[in-house]
Amino acid sequence: MSEIVYLTHDNTIDLLLKADGVVQDLSSVTKITATFGATTITSTDKAAGAIKWDQAGYDTGEIRLDLGGETIPATAYQVYIVIYDSAHTDGVVWGWIHVQVKADVENE
User: Fold this and answer.
1) DSSP sequence for the chain
2) CB neighbours of 74 closer than 8 A, spacing ≥ 6?
3) pLDDT tens digit sequence for 40-82
4) CA quadruple 76, 2, 68, 102: dihedral, nearest 10
5) What would be the CATH architecture of the domain defined by 3-107?
6) What is the pTM of this model?
7) CA distance 85 to 91
């Protein structure tokens, strides 16, 4: 299954990060990146930017990718998610998701 990013729209991709079936506490995370081919989106503020985490109303382990305002070429990607904290300053590659970026859904 693919997630879809609609450029210029406010849809989000909501992910629940688990290790061995257990949701992970993201309160100590300092940065999250999502890489679309040659384009890497980076968030260092859990409450602002294209990637948000550890917010009121979020489930434990939930991140939200709000990518409609980003400059990402429209095509299909294997998007790698990398999580950083003080114990993992080089980042932990959490895995990847298949994402289809669409430029203009109204004229599809």
Assistant:
1) --EEEETTS---EEEE-EETTEE---TTEEEEEEEETTEEEEE-STTSSSEEES-TTPPTTEEEE--TTS---SSEEEEEEEEEETTEEEEEEEEEEEEEEES-GGG-
2) 7, 101, 102, 103
3) 999 999 999 999 999 999 999 999 999 999 999 999 999 999 9
4) 50
5) Sandwich (2.60)
6) 0.92
7) 7
